Amino acid sequence: MIARYLLIAHLMAGAWLAGPASARDQVVFGITLEPNSLDPTSAPAAAVGEVVHYNVLEGLVKIEENGSTTPLLAESWEISADARHYSFRLRRDVRFHDGQAFDAAAVKYSFERAKAPDSGNKSRTKLFDNIERIDTPDPHTVVLVLRHRDPHLLYRLGESPAVILHPASAERASTEPVGTGPFRLERWDKGHAITLVKWPGYRDAASVQLQRAVFRFVNSFVDSTELPPEVDVFFNFATKSVLRNRLNERYQVLTGGSSSKTLLALNNRHPPLDDLRVRQAISHAIDRAAVIHQVLEGRGDPIGSHYSPTEDGYLHLADRYPYDPVRARALLAEAGVEGRLRLKLSLPPTPYARDGGKVVAQQLAAAGIDVDIELVSWPDWLNGAFQGRFEMTLINHVEPLDYDIYTDPSYYFGYDNADFRALVEAHRNAVNPRQRNRLLADIQRKLADDAVNAWLYAPQVSTVARKGLEGLWVNYPIYVHDLAALRWR
């Protein structure tokens, strides 16, 4: 399989590369999943933001590698004393790729579009539903009036679902995004690659060294020390043998932290997973340390709730359900399960899911739970499991501070708990920092106590990069590739 993959990669390279891999004005990324859209305001997959965020489409705020927020399309902002009015002063030197000026009207249009009930925006509940009113007193000022305080508002505005779309072409953004970023879409070769090219009209075009960036979709497992020579960066794709090859003359391995949470997601609507004792049994049946060792070679931290150790206010709950197959069997018996329980595990085409799914299935079997593994494509996962049509799935949630997803009963987990929603609402409205921290801890405990999912680990991000490429992030508070910061030495 590897030899076949390498041959295909070599043959296809000429179809979209402007020059040899050694060219100093381009970069080729190898990414695992092909986006199903190029509009992060209406598509949930993190792969969308990997390609277009900061590069083609920009937001008011930028999240830096260290997690801080800095101005982007907004040059500054002011926050009212009650933290419910945010006034953003917009940059005046910004234009869309078609030459039209960026202004407050574009922000208002984009945010109102995201607020629509049918928008598909994954931040609608946690961000846009909280915006009571959008005022534009002049073309360069936007005022957001919130329904309630949100200590994470600036951070949320820096995520990809909050990018600003061109009002005249927003409905075509899934395939023809028109933004304000330093690159524009050249072409999308479905099933193969997406090519971006530098936009000469960018406000700071002189500082952008790259002329071209190619995002190639690598669906095969690269389990060889011989990497395809045309690819400069393998993002979060480093398999065991690649990671061992740290002295390769062409590549280096960058290992950092992220806000990711990898979990065995459970359909809380589906019997018998609607029984707390069954979900608790599944959590007790999993040896997280063994999963991390076998799948990641130890490059991850065990977690017990939907929160990453890199995020402020993290509470260590990995010991809430210690590995205990005997306890797991007892809980299944208490839930009325007779004999062995059989469940289906749907696995998307990512190395962590396919490798991790095998390990988890073996562990569950030892506790009396037989697993039927279903291998699905990424589009099938999005149209199946992500729509709530699944029993179990192994998936990595990369968005930071996204515990709010559990307030939506229609979300694919099917978790519907009024007490949890009340905790999140109280956290939103808390004024005292100590009170907010206490409520954030209660939020994490509530998810763990209800065993909504079986959380596994927060993975380290391992990126294999060609030596000489500078500006790559090592840590990923959000999954983006800031192409304007890259340069060859």
TrEMBL record:
InterPro entries linked: Peptide/Ni-bd, SBP_5, SBP_5_dom
Superkingdom, taxonomy of origin: Bacteria
Family named by the database record: Belongs to the bacterial solute-binding protein 5 family.
Segments forming domain Solute-binding protein family: 70-398
SUPFAM superfamilies in the cross-refs: Periplasmic binding protein-like II
Keyword tRNA-binding: no
Keywords for this protein: Signal
Designated name of the protein: ABC transporter substrate-binding protein
Signal listed as a keyword: yes
N-terminal signal peptide: 1-23
